[in-house]
Amino acid sequence: MKKEVQLTAFSKFAGCGAKVTPAMLDKALCGLVQPYNPNVLSDFNHAEDAGVYKLSDDLAIVQTVDFFPPVCDDPFFFGKIAATNAISDIYAMGGVPITAVSIVSFPEEKLDSSYLTKILEGALDALKESGAALVGGHSIRDEQLTFGLCVVGTVHPKKMWSNNRAQDGDLLLFTKPLGSGILQNAVKAKVAGKGDEERLLKVMSTLNKDAAEILKQFDVHACTDVTGFGLLGHLSEMAIDNPNGFEIVMKDVPLMEGVRLYAEQGFIPGGSYTNRDHRKHLISNLDELDETGQLLLFDPQTSGGLLAALSAGEAHEALKVMRKAGIEAAIIGRVSKEIEGIVVRV
């Protein structure tokens, strides 16, 4: 590379914080009707993480796509994190990733080709770890730099996970600490320490592969991954069309070090506010949380953890296995027919 370029300067958004707002997305999708196909097991109608199509009685394909502007200035880590984030949707459905194609918009008049090489090297690093193969891609010239993957995986039709089937008595198991949106802003403002940035990059570039493989040893009732809509935003998708209510215990939600302090200093992504505006009506006691607590729970995550619902006994056993494997998992709440909607207990 001839001259070091700040990749995050190419967009006012970072990572999954660039998502179209939930309100706009709901409005755009409202009224769309897909012709009935008995082989379509999951599509856009239920806010699932990926589509699932049955090929036979014991085989279905899982398909997803995810791309975004730079989350960091290191092109290798940008590529690796973008790939890790895209692959996560396959894990959230209980699937195994097998192939991927890349999606690139590249400002070739502003960036040397070596940046694109490094981005692709980072993506290949994540794909190699996941066991999936990069089989192609598509690129366009643009003023904005974006990168991501379309990923295909496989799953047994009767073993796929959905996001809205949590059962009464389940506990909620979360597999990564929160705070990537806030920490990205602090890093971009050059306020965060080097250790904070290294911690952020490590969390975002860690595949959910090990967590998913451990979860498959247990009876998972529901699962999603927490990304651009924040913890409460994705929990809301789990709660819609579910007869049970959900409780989150704020003190049990793992946070990356320094995140609350950076939030109090004002390094809040715009997505936190739009996420809250769209889903706050589903949180019955949101006003009981201070402003910082609310925005932390709606902080848009990039390559966040899996959020799974399991019976109490299985959740505790899964937690033990995860922690032994070095996964920063925590039980952060519960599901109950006695709860209405979503509540957050401080």
Helices and strands in order, then pairings?
Layout: H1 22-29, E1 40-42, E2 51-56, E3 59-68, H2 75-92, E4 96-106, H3 113-130, E5 133-141, E6 146-155, E7 170-174, H4 180-188, H5 194-204, H6 209-215, E8 222-225, H7 230-239, E9 245-249, H8 259-264, H9 270-279, H10 291-297, E10 306-311, H11 312-324, E11 330-336, E12 342-345
Parallel strand pairs: 4-5, 9-12
Antiparallel strand pairs: 1-2, 2-3, 3-6, 4-6, 7-10, 7-11, 8-10, 9-11
Helix pairs in contact: 2-3, 4-5, 7-9
Write up what this structure looks like.
This protein has 2 domains: 7-155, PurM-like, N-terminal domain (60s Ribosomal Protein L30, Chain: A, 2-Layer Sandwich), CATH 3.30.1330.10; 170-345, Phosphoribosyl-aminoimidazole Synthetase, Chain A, domain 2. The chain is 34% helix and 23% strand. The chain is built from 11 helices and 12 strands. Strands 1-2-3-6-4-5 form a 6-stranded mixed sheet. A 6-stranded mixed sheet has the order 8-10-7-11-9-12, with helices on both faces. α2 packs parallel to α3, α4 packs across α5 (194-204) and α7 packs parallel to α9 (270-279). It is globular, with a radius of gyration of 19 Å. The mean pLDDT is 93.
